[in-house]
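Friendly challenge for the regulars: who can give me the structure tokens for this chain first? No prize, just bragging rights.
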Amino acid sequence: MRTIELEINWLFYVISLSLIWLSHTAFSTFGIPASLLQIVTMLLLLFVLTTLAFSLTGKRFLHVDKVGVSYSCFGKTHYIHAEHIKSIKLRSFGVLSIPEVYLDNGTVKRFLSWKMTREELNKADTILH
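First reply, four minutes later:
Bragging rights claimed.
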């Protein structure tokens, strides 16, 4: 069975960490209490860095194979069966591209922290259909 294991979207994490830093800097000029700002910033940093650590250690993943898409989210493994997948597309937001899985019931699953190349997208279409 051929499986496509997607890589970590490093650009997503760089942008996320940059936005956290930029937000902290910007909001510190508005007179928000420093302790509140530090708590919010630390919680955001903890969330982003925890998801990155789980991705690096293999506890978070995104796989595409002939039976569908499997991914982990908050410690649970989820499956999207191939018969429910209408299409997989790449959505671009400037320099950032993210894979989106369109389902037959009209919902869309976006995987922000995973990178998919055009070649991997073509392979996924071939494997799934």
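The chain has two domains: 8-57, 61-128. Strands lie at 3-5, 7-8, 62-65, 68-73, 76-81, 85-93, 96-103, 108-110, 114-115. Your move, everyone else.
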